């Protein structure tokens, strides 16, 4: 199914246009990541960690991208300690088409894996203490725009859908920006929202 969607996406759009002036789809970036869950029952848990991702053009209007993020949170309940670690590797393909000299239309198709490891200790019960692991595979489709308000700044916004065998389908919204402090080197700020979960990604990007 993903191959059919990709073929339809790429086949329906012309490959005559290049990226808008000053926008690069070849870069590496990394930084701090934080997620927050709005859930009164769980006490609005959050987690901190880091991320690394990059993108590489394989054709005039097509790029491959990959990323890896990991966060962890630790809670104590009496003498018990619960450490929850989440890792999210992803890989995808993107398409971009120039709309104006400063704005691109973008579309992405991504395979996402969510790995969770929970470590429980200090309960006093040997049957409860231990490490528990689980994972989920999902697909994400998004579309949006990416533009250059000025030569040293960049903004992007996109929305789409995330779904998997162990997940209910969810809307995904992303808003981000970059400010260059040197040519091809800039500070990144991005917010991603998936229903009650918000993920923040401040980092540094090197374009080439």
Characterize the structure shown.
The protein is mainly beta and 208 residues long. It has one domain: Lipocalin. The chain contains one helix and ten strands; from the N terminus they run H-E-E-E-E-E-E-E-E-E-E. It has a ten-stranded antiparallel barrel. It is elongated and about 65 Å long. The two termini are 33 Å apart. The model is unreliable at 1-17 (pLDDT under 50).
Topology, element by element:
Elements: H1 2-12, E1 27-37, E2 46-59, E3 62-77, E4 80-98, E5 103-121, E6 130-150, E7 153-164, E8 167-182, E9 185-194, E10 197-207
Antiparallel strand pairs: 1-2, 1-10, 2-3, 3-4, 4-5, 5-6, 6-7, 7-8, 8-9, 9-10
Brief descriptors of the model:
208 residues; mainly beta; Lipocalin
Strand order of the largest sheet: 1-2-3-4-5-6-7-8-9-10
- Give the CATH level 1 class: Mainly Beta
Write down the secondary-structure element order.
HEEEEEEEEEE
Over all CA atoms, what is the radius of gyration?
A: 19 Å
* Helix segment tally: 1
CATH domain fold name: Lipocalin
How is the biggest beta sheet arranged?
10 strands, antiparallel, barrel
**Are there runs of 5+ residues with pLDDT below 50, and where?**
1-17
Number of strands: 10
**What's the average pLDDT?**
87
CATH architecture label name:
Beta Barrel
- Approximate strand percentage: over 45%
Number of domain modules: 1
Helix proportion range: under 10%
Principal-axis shape equals elongated
N-to-C span: 33 Å
The assigned structural class equals mainly beta
């Amino acid at each position: 199914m993903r191959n059919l969607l990709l073929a339809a996406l790429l086949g329906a759009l012309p490959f005559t246009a290049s990226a808008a002036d000053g926008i690069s789809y070849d870069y590496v970036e990394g930084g701090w990541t934080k997620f927050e869950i709005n859930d009164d029952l769980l006490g609005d848990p959050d987690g901190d960690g880091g991320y690394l991702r990059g993108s590489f053009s394989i054709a005039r209007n097509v790029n491959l991208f990959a990323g890896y993020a990991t966060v962890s949170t630790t809670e104590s309940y009496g003498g018990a300690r619960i450490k929850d670690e989440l890792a999210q590797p992803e890989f995808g393909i993107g398409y971009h088409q120039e709309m104006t000299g400063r704005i691109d239309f973008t579309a992405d198709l991504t395979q996402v894996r969510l790995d969770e490891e929970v470590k429980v200790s200090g309960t006093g019960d040997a049957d409860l203490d231990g490490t528990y692991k689980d994972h989920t595979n999902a697909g994400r489709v998004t579309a949006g725009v990416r533009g250059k308000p000025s030569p040293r700044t960049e903004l992007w916004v996109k929305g789409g859908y995330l779904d998997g065998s162990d997940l209910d389908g969810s809307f995904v919204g992303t808003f981000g920006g970059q400010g260059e402090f040197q040519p091809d080197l800039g500070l990144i700020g991005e917010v991603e929202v998936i229903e009650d979960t918000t993920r923040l990604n401040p980092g540094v990007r090197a374009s080439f």
